[in-house]
What does this fold into?
Amino acid sequence: CVCVCVWFHFVSPVEGRLVSEIGKGLCVLVGIAEDDTKEDLDYVLRKVLNVRVFEDDKGKMWTRGVQQAGLDILCVSQFTLYAKLKGNKPDFHLAMGGPRAKEMYMAFLDSLRSAYVAERVKGRGKTLNLSLSLS
It folds into this structure.
């Protein structure tokens, strides 16, 4: 499960210090399900690079993907995308467990960096506090 957001400025502090920052680009919240495979992540990778949410040189929207536009990508591991409510309590049993999920997430980042420009892809396996700006 992936949630893709278009951002114009994105800052990611950890323990009070800046660890990631991107300009215009995508913030990709990556949730990995218990039954996800490498093939699933390869599919998501292609979609992240090619989803047309940016404008062309003439300002026409929905014509360029992040790769074609040469923009930044920030990936954030987000197991909560697989939350289900049991009564009033969240249940995360559909999300892949800790060490396996981290390994798959890091493999996704490596694949994304190989398929695109490594310096334009940000992401870590740490807990993040997010600060977003749409201006």
User: Anything to note?
Assistant: The first strand starts at residue 2 and ends at 7. Helices lie at 38-50, 66-69, 98-115. The chain has a mean pLDDT of 86.
